[in-house]
Amino acid sequence: MGEQLITRLLGGLPDGARLSQAPYRRNAARCRRVFDRVIQTGEPLLVEFATIQGNRRAILSYELLALPLCEHGDAPEAVAVGVSWKSAVRAVPTYNARQKTPRVPRLFAFARDASFAQAVARSLRLELAPVEEREFEDGEHKARPLIDVAGQDAFIIASLHGDERQSVNDRLCRLLFFIGTLRTNGAARIVAVIPYLCYQRKDRQTKPYDPLTSRYVAQILEAVGVDQVITMEAHNIAALQNGFRCQLIHLESHDAFAHHLVPRLRGSDVTVVAPDMGAAKRAEAFRTALESQLGRPVEKAFMEKQRSMGVVTGDLFAGNVAGRRVVVFDDMISSGTTMMRAAEACRWRGAIDAHLVATHGLFNAGAADTLSDPFICAVCVANTAASEKQISRLEIVDVSAAFARAIHTCAPLKF
């Protein structure tokens, strides 16, 4: 029986062989540590350990009692060993090296973005993952995921526009901290889904020592650990792409707005107007989409604009709007003065009415009064920046499906 136990514990070991020659090296090392301890202390030692042996890959439990042996009462010179074992406790699960834990996309959103995020989740047939948000009396805040993200792809939906309760800076800071939290907790990949990306107006230096805030936002997002960014209708797409080193997915809204406006513009002569030269390419893309969906030509026009210290100047207008319905198209409506200035120029030149269309409806203080002119038959914005402002004839166009398609494209699994 003793030989069988030694064979189970150490493998086939001939008489007089050293422990270093044992086939089961792990168990031999364990025995060596036990024996050395007994020799050093002169005290008996009882240990228990488990090991995997044999082709059955079963766990066997051993009890080993080591007693010091000494001659003439001196320090121990040898060790007497007693061994007992128990039959297999449980089978060890076997794993296929090719099998991996599936990476399930985790879709997160803050409470202020819940409506838009729910629309995206419905398109993806996913549930929003739970998030805990806490506000502290001194203005600080905390947000954390309430499910495990280790090894998973995490998508955080957060639009970075300000309102009466949370400023742009508050929202940006919350997003940065949450991305850092996802990285700290082992997310395999972090994608920031930002319908409206803030601080994009300053993408180039127009005066000495001007900041490049568009680039700085990209840099701090990357610094906290973002791997990919999805956004829509940036103020200057070229500057934004140059600012990011990680992958950027830039979505456009012109198809959605064209689809929304086609029913009411059918049968009318239409001109698409860019309110300034910076909006010319964006307005042209919308004009092309509208022309395609209407199935007939749509004319274009543009307005010159120069802004310095908050003062807007420039009177140059090019294009035909007399007796036509106009659509003024831009990336955002903030105060509304740029859009209304273009609409007024169209009215003076004989336009019938005007639709003001912009992807992001920020609607700063005074925008409601500025946009209340009866010449404006509709103000159309996407649902990228939820606003509580009461704007006359406001129409919201849902673009959540575009974000859902982008998420579906960059997620590693079909879902």
TrEMBL record:
Gene3D superfamilies: 3.40.50.2020. Its EC number is 2.7.6.1. GO terms for cellular component: cytoplasm; ribose phosphate diphosphokinase complex. It catalyses: D-ribose 5-phosphate + ATP = 5-phospho-alpha-D-ribose 1-diphosphate + AMP + H(+). Coiled coil: none annotated. Keywords: ATP-binding, Kinase, Nucleotide biosynthesis, Nucleotide-binding, Transferase. This is ribose-phosphate diphosphokinase.
